[in-house]
């Protein structure tokens, strides 16, 4: 990256009938945000104009037909479509899903071609976005296909970081999806992310049990004894700071999570219910383990308040700052590990 150039932050607009456009525009309505990055919104001039007028948001932007021709220091809108999509706030429509996918595909393409440095995704509807080009339960799995690496759904704040062994998997399928290979892979991914993306040299990770009370020594299920405990011992013997399995029901309420740099939950709700309870509105969904940086807010399309100007943009703003900080951390990590002279300075 050129010295002193602001980070080019790509933004996919999400479901046009939800609050995605609103939280994006509210975030960058504050001109001070341009001190931190150059935002690049993948949509169209007419769509953004309609949204800002409908929501009463005063914002100026520069339109472009190519991500490679954005202007630093301005809000950029890359025109992905020429037609005018029908916007029906609060409604789930196939048309809104189609344009959410167009925006996401264009943003990911620009990310892969390095016309943008990092990506923040506004919320999609996981149902109406389904098509021949998108047969995934969410952003994470799509990005895992498009970008190199082992993806990990990682919910983060400054004080709490929760990763998932299984993410958008039915509860009944989660125990059978968890095996030693998966556990080893996710532990290594979360460990590497904590080192590379958050600057933690020796991460300490807690693993939550699969069953109530971590199986109570086999009384309430054998998965914890047969899968988790052997892997934890094996990885601990190799020098990884991985501990558990801990009973999930008391782990967060007792503040035990504060003793660790991150928590690895067995399945979606086991990790996300406590995370959102403790940090809703300030949490960020980060897709760790990939070759590129992607974050998103910790909420969905919120159809019930869409178009009413009531959306809280705090989480989207946090997602922006988190993406910028992770990109900086990764850049610094790469430089320190590629430059022998820098390594010697660090050792001294």
Fold topology:
Elements: E1 7-12, H1 20-29, E2 37-43, H2 45-55, E3 62-64, E4 76-79, H3 94-112, E5 118-121, H4 139-146, E6 149-156, E7 161-164, H5 174-177, H6 180-196, E8 204-208, H7 223-237, E9 241-246, H8 248-251, E10 262-265, H9 268-279, E11 284-290, E12 293-297, H10 314-338, H11 340-347
Parallel strand pairs: 1-2, 1-5, 2-4, 3-4, 5-12, 7-10, 8-9, 8-10
Antiparallel strand pairs: 6-7, 6-11, 11-12
Summarize the entry for a quick read.
The chain has helices at residues 20-29, 45-55, 94-112, 139-146, 174-177, 180-196, 223-237, 248-251, 268-279, 314-338, 340-347, and strands spanning 7-12, 37-43, 62-64, 76-79, 118-121, 149-156, 161-164, 204-208, 241-246, 262-265, 284-290, 293-297.
Describe the structure.
The chain is α/β, with parallel strands linked by helices. It has eleven helices and twelve strands. It has helices at residues 20-29, 45-55, 94-112, 139-146, 174-177, 180-196, 223-237, 248-251, 268-279, 314-338, 340-347; strands at residues 7-12, 37-43, 62-64, 76-79, 118-121, 149-156, 161-164, 204-208, 241-246, 262-265, 284-290, 293-297. It has a twelve-stranded mixed sheet, with helices on both faces. Helix 10 (314-338) crosses helix 11 (340-347). The longest helix is centred in the C-terminal third of the chain and has 25 residues, at 314-338. The radius of gyration is 21 Å and the shape is globular. The protein starts with 6 loop residues before the first strand and ends with a helix. 45% of the residues are buried.
């Amino acid at each position: 990256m050129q010295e002193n150039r602001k980070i080019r932050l790509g933004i996919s607009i999400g479901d046009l009938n939800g609050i995605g456009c609103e939280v994006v525009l509210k975030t960058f309505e504050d001109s001070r945000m341009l001190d931190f990055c150059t935002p690049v919104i993948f949509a169209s001039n007419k769509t953004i104009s309609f949204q800002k007028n409908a929501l009463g948001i005063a914002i100026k932007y520069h339109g472009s037909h190519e991500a490679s021709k954005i202007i630093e220091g301005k809000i950029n809108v890359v025109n992905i479509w020429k037609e005018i999509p029908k916007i029906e706030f609060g409604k789930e429509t196939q048309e809104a899903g189609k344009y959410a996918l167009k925006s996401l595909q264009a943003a990911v393409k620009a990310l892969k071609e390095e016309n943008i440095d990092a990506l923040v995704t506004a919320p999609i509807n996981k149902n109406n976005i389904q098509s021949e080009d998108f047969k995934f339960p969410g952003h994470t799995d799509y990005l895992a296909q498009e970008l190199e690496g082992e993806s990990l759904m990682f919910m983060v704040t400054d004080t709490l970081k929760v990763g998932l062994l299984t993410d958008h998997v039915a509860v009944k399928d989660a125990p059978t999806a968890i095996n030693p290979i998966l556990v080893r892979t996710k532990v290594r991914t979360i460990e590497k992310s904590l080192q590379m993306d958050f600057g933690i040299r020796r991460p300490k990770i807690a693993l939550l049990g699969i069953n109530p009370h971590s199986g109570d020594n086999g009384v309430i299920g054998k998965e914890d004894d047969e899968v988790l405990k052997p892997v934890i011992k094996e990885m601990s013997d190799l020098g990884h700071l991985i501990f558990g399995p801990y009973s999930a029901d008391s782990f967060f309420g007792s503040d035990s999570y504060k003793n660790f740099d991150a928590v690895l939950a067995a399945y979606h709700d086991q990790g996300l219910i406590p995370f959102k309870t403790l940090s809703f509105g300030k949490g960020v969904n980060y897709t760790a383990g990939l070759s590129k940086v992607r974050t998103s807010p910790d909420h969905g399309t919120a159809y019930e308040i869409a178009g009413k100007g009531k959306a809280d943009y705090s989480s989207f703003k946090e997602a922006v700052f988190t993406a910028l900080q992770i990109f900086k951390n990764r850049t610094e990590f790469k430089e320190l590990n590629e430059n022998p002279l820098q390594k010697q300075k660090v050792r001294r």
